[in-house]
Amino acid sequence: MNEYRQKSIWKNIVYYRYIYLMLIPVILYYAIFKYAPMYGIQLAFKKYNLQGGITGSPWIGFENFIYLFKKAEFWQALKNTLVVSFMKLVLGFPVSVILAIFLNEVIFVRLKKIFQVIFTFPHFLSWVILSSIMFNLLSNSGAVNNLFELAGIGRINFLTNKETFRFLLVYSEVWKEAGWGTIIYIATIANIDPSLYEAAIIDGANRWNKIRFITWPGIKSVVITMLILQVGHMMSAGFMQIFNLYNPSVYSVADILDTYIYRETFNVIPNFGLTTAMGLFTGLTNCILLLTANFISKKFGEKGIV
Amino acid sequence: MAAKYHRMKLFDVILILFFVVLTIMILYPFYNAILISLVSENEYIRTPFLLVPKKIVLDSYRYIVEKSMIFKGMRNTIFITAAGVLYNMFLTTICAYALTKDFPGKKILSYLIIFTIYFSGGLIPYYLLIKNLNMMDSMMSMVLPMGITFMYMTVIQRHFESIPSSLIESAKMDGANEIQILFKIVLPLSMPIIATFVLYYGVDRWNEWWNGMLFIKSVDKQPLQLILRNIVQDATTTNSSASSASGAMPFGDGIKMASTVISMLPIMCIYPFLQKYFVSGIMAGAVKE
């Protein structure tokens, strides 16, 4: 390798000519589908009209943003985004950790594998499929409500109930993703030195002691990294999920920024300038959060202090 | 592990019971959906909590075969999955291989690629782009924009880096160029990981509906899951009991569940057998994080 690095840059480029040839489709892909849309961001500062398009529409400065920040729906969507994300963090995040620790305690290896296959399965289905199943199960005449009726609780319309809808979002997210989330923890636990457990047994440690003093310290740093990364995703509360599950009667509690942007763009008289501005606001906030989270988690990872 | 010394204790029994309950909670919704797709409307209405069907009826599936767009959607989705995975694997493997080399400009390119996972143009610029590329209502709008998934690409890249360089050097001695090396040496040596990511991309493309909803207006070009979504979302707004009042109408819930079952059938059939490949993929991705 070194001998080529000594040579001039041109010789190097010639040497790697086939690599550049291979990269042409890759660069085209990123240029067209990832970078070209960024050119359209200027619409956030323009008053969009069909004739003008992206380039020809007149500049209006920050007017779109000023108008946006005055809209009550925007603040409601922002609040919903943060509240739903926060609920998923507090109620959903620990489930994977707890499941992984408990799965590790199942003594029959075969059974453990079967549980794992079952728990990770819903991850691979789309929200279209899962929402279809949930609509049926949770509707007024669905199985869950029939059971509630038999148990004397009475029927609850989960899909239109403002009080329960956010919990439904957390529950269904856990249903889909919690099992998949356990994989990283189970792998981390598998890497813990088995002699630690053996020594603990000799010292007379019980199950709880082993979890408390060996398993938990073993996965703690990974848990913290995952937690930080999830905080970094606060601005995306789950567009695909909410978009497939919500309906107008729960907009006040479940309409997040991404769903609001979608509706404003396609369902009413479109104001592309305004929705681009909203998208830019969301995208930038998201970007800052992600970079910060990544930075912090790398700090943790490198120094290993937890 | 130490199972030979381990006597079943109360804790183990409770733990297994707990996981069995969890299994039921996770799987019952799917079981319920399959069940409803297989019974008559009469039985569905009369049994509040269906567990075992008295009589299996295939009316809902018959209706789908005869009248619904589901199979047309499936044909479209099979095309999207096949074309999409080929396109994905082509772009992903050449990108991953190129990034294992120290060519001038590699750093800049890497940064430009990583930047796209933190920031994107957003929905409207994306929509206008597809419109300006004249891809509206074209099947290509569901294939071409979905090129490289960054996480998959980095895992493959790390795997390529682990291939002994002596193999590559000796091929170079024989006069092979980088393109030949990738396709004749590196890829054949990486079949397990390639297969894993064919599965990942396959599932992703199978679940396509979003681009379809944004860009495809003709019903006969829509992907399976978009057609499913339209069936499901449509009937939640219309009154479903109206269909049961007039006996001639088809069994709405049955048809919806049958459509759902058909949409998830491929994943349902392959997943239990290939789960370990899926897990190995995510594991390889987690190593460096």
From TrEMBL, chain A:
Superkingdom, taxonomy of origin: Bacteria
Domain ABC transmembrane type-1, first and last residues per copy: 78-293
PROSITE patterns: ABC_TM1
Record's bilayer topology term: Multi-pass membrane protein
Transmembrane segments: 12-32, 52-69, 81-102, 114-138, 222-243, 272-296
Predominant subcellular localization, coarse grouping: membrane
Record-level GO BP terms: transmembrane transport
UniProt subcellular location: Cell membrane
Family: Belongs to the binding-protein-dependent transport system permease family.
Pfam family, one: BPD_transp_1
Name recorded for this polypeptide: Sugar ABC transporter permease
GO cellular component: plasma membrane
Gene3D superfamilies, alphabetized: MetI-like
Keywords, comma-separated and alphabetical: Cell membrane, Membrane, Transmembrane, Transmembrane helix, Transport
Automatic annotation (TrEMBL), chain B:
Organism: Parablautia intestinalis
Membrane spanning stretches: 12-31, 78-99, 111-130, 142-160, 181-203, 254-274
Biological process per Gene Ontology, one example term: transmembrane transport
PROSITE patterns listed in its UniProt record: ABC_TM1 (PS50928)
Protein name in the entry: Carbohydrate ABC transporter permease
Biological classification of the source: Bacteria, Bacillati, Bacillota, Clostridia, Lachnospirales
Sequence ranges assigned to domain ABC transmembrane type-1 in this UniProt record: 74-274
Membrane topology according to the record: Multi-pass membrane protein
Gene Ontology cellular-component annotations: plasma membrane
